[in-house]
Amino acid sequence: MNQGKKVFGHLLTRWATPLAKKFTYSCSMAGNPVNLGPGLRTVGIVVNVAAFAVPAICAAADEPRRPNIVIILADDMGFADMGSYGSEIKTPNMDSLAKDGVRFTNFYTHASSSPTRSMLLTGVDTHLNGLGNMDEWTAPNQWGHDGYEGYLNDQVVTLPQMLRDAGYHTYMVGKWHMGKSPKQIPAARGFERDFSLLDGAGSYWDMTNFTAASPKTVFTEDGKYLSKLPDDYYATKTYTDKLIGFIDANHGDGKPFFAYVSHQAPHDPFHLPRDWRTRHVGEYDKGWDTVRQERLKRQIELGIMPADTQLSERMWFIPDPIVLAPAPRAILGKKMELYAGMVENMDFHVGRLIDHLKKIGEYENTVFIVFGDNGAEGTDLFAMIAGTPGTRDFLYAAIKWSQTHPNAWGDPGSYVGYGPMWAQVSMTPFSQYKGWLAEGGIRNALIISGPAVKRPKGGINRGLMHVADLMPTLLEIAGASYPKTYGGHEVPALLGKSWVPMLAGRTDTPRSEQDYLAWELFGNRAVRQGEWKLRWEYEPFGKGEWELYNLAADPGERKNLAAERPDKVKALLALWDSYVRTNNVILPSRSVFEALKDKLPQRVPDDPGYPPLLYKKQFVPPKDMLADPKP
C-alpha cells in the first residue's frame, strides 16, 4: 500500500512539475512571479493546488503591477525655470513628463532645503519631525527641544521605511541634509541602496566644503561613509549613473522600486562641464527685467498664470539693468548663463534616466514627480559663509575657492551664485525668494506623470497642494497605509492629504476652502486658506507685522489688504495660533535675518521710470532748426 502511494505520488509530481513551471511563467508575465513548484511535491498539496490554489494565485498575479515611483527633486530650482513653466532654459526631458502628465501651479514646499526634505520623507510638520529650524541656524531658545534636533528624529517613520515594508526596493541618490551620524543617514532611515551627499551643499567636482571648521563634505554609499569619491565624479552625472546601477541590479525580480533622486543642481556653486557653460552666451545681457517680462508672457500663453497677472515688484535694492554699463551687465548675465547650463545639464541626466527606464520596459509603469525644494536662492551664501577679512573662514575661502576669474567660473575651486536679481527671474511672477515666506520662497512648479494620473495629458491643475501630501499620496499608490505606531512607539499624525482622488480626476483639489496651510522658518511665518494669505516677515523684506494678500487677484503680493480686511486678518490669526499649539512651534530668539535691515538700503517703492533723471535721454532738436554758431 505504501509503495503504491509512492508510485502514485511520483507520477503526480512528474506531471505537476512542468505544469507548475507553466503557471509560474504565465503568472510572471503579469509581473508577479509565483513559484508553485515546491507546493506540488506531495500528493495532497498537488490535488489542492491543482483544484483551487492555482486559479486564485494567477488571478491575483494578473492584477496590474504596483507602479515604480521616482521623485526628481531639484535644489533651488525656481517656479519659472522649466520650459513648460515659461522659461527660455531648454528642459525637453522634464517638459516631456509634463506633456505626458499634469502641471500644478499651487504647490507649496518650505522656504529652505532640509525643512522641505523632512516633510517630503515624513509627511509630518517640521516642528515635530526634527527640522523645526535648519541645523545650521537653530536658535538658542530652540536648543534641546523636541522637534528642533536638526535631523530627522526618532519619533517619525519615513516614506522609504514604509515603502520598503510594503515590498518596494528603495533607492536614493544625491543630497540628504537631514543628519550625519550612523542612525541618521539614508541607510538608517529606510533606503536599501544610496549614494548620498550628507551636507547641504558643496563642490560638484570633489569633497571641498565651505568652512574651515568643516572643510570636507561627507558622503555615504550603501550605508558606509566614503573616504573618497569616484575618479570621474561629477555630482549630477554620478548620481544618475549610480541610480541606474541600483535599478539594474534588482531589475526583473518582480518588485517595484522607489527612487528619491535628490539632485544637488542647480544649487550654487555653479559647477558644470565646459561644454555646458556656453549655451546661452550673451542671452542674458538684456537684463533681468526683460527676461522676467518675457517669462510672464509665456506663462500666460501656456495657461500657467492668469492673463491679468502682474509681476511682483523688483526688489528695491536691485538696480534697473538699463542703468548699468555694458561690462557689469555682461558679467551679471554670465552668472545666469551658468545657472541655465546647470538646469539644462540636470535635465540631460533626467533624460538619461527616462531613456533607461524606457529601454528596460519600466517607463510606462513609473510615476514621476518633479519639483524644486524651495524658492530660488537670492542670498549670497558664499559671502555669508566666508565672513570678513581676518577670520579663518575668509582665509579658507580665499585658498579653497580661489578661482574667481570669469573664465574659470564652473571649474573646481570657483564659487558662483547668481544673486537676487536672477532669483526673482527664476521665481517669476512671485515676490522674493528662498528663505522668505512670500510666494517666491515657498511656491514651486510640480509635474506628475505616470499610471496614477488619469487626468488629460498636458493639463494644468490649480488645486492647493503641499509637499507633506507626498507621504499619504505615495502610500496609497503603493497600496500601503500610514501606521499609528512604528518601532514600538506612536508616530505623529500626517499633515498632508492624498492626491490620489485628484490625480484620478475625481476632484480638482485635495483641500476644501476650510483647510489651511501654515509655515514658520527663521521667525518668518505665514498662513494660507483658500485664496487668502497672511504673512509676517522680518524687516526690510516684510514690515515686522502681519500682512494680508489675496493670491487669486494678486499672486505677486503687491497690495497689502490688512487694513481693509481686519476680519480676515483675525480669522487667519486664529488659524495661526492653532497651528502653533498643534505643531510645537517655538519662535526663534535669533534669526539669520535679524540684522538685515541695517545692511540693506532703506526700502522704497518700485515705480518704473523713477527718478526720471536716470531715464531722460539726450534731447535732439528738430533737424530744420539746427544751425552752426554765427561768426
Label this structure with key terms.
631 residues; alpha/beta; Alkaline Phosphatase, subunit A; 2 domains; eleven-stranded mixed beta sheet; four-stranded antiparallel beta sheet; 17 strands; globular; disordered N terminus
By secondary-structure content and strand pairing, the structural class works out as: alpha/beta
Number of helices: 17
Could you give me the name of the CATH homologous superfamily of the largest domain? Alkaline Phosphatase, subunit A
- Please name the CATH topology of the largest domain: Alkaline Phosphatase, subunit A
Largest sheet: 11 strands, mixed
In total, the number of domains comes to 2
Structure description:
By secondary structure, this protein is α/β, with parallel strands linked by helices. The protein is 32% helix and 13% strand. Helix 1 (2-28) packs parallel to helix 2 (43-61) and helix 7 runs parallel beside helix 9 (326-359). Mean pLDDT is 91; it is low at 1-61.
Write the layout of secondary structure elements.
Layout: H1 2-28, H2 43-61, E1 68-74, H3 92-100, E2 102-108, H4 113-122, H5 126-129, H6 159-165, E3 169-175, E4 193-197, E5 219-221, E6 224-225, H7 235-250, E7 257-262, H8 288-302, H9 326-359, E8 366-372, H10 381-386, H11 392-400, H12 419-426, H13 439-442, E9 443-449, E10 459-461, E11 465-466, H14 470-478, E12 485-486, E13 489-490, H15 500-503, E14 516-521, E15 524-529, E16 532-536, E17 547-550, H16 566-583, H17 596-599
Parallel strand pairs: 1-7, 1-8, 2-10, 2-11, 3-4, 3-7
Antiparallel strand pairs: 2-9, 4-5, 5-6, 8-9, 12-13, 14-15, 15-16, 16-17
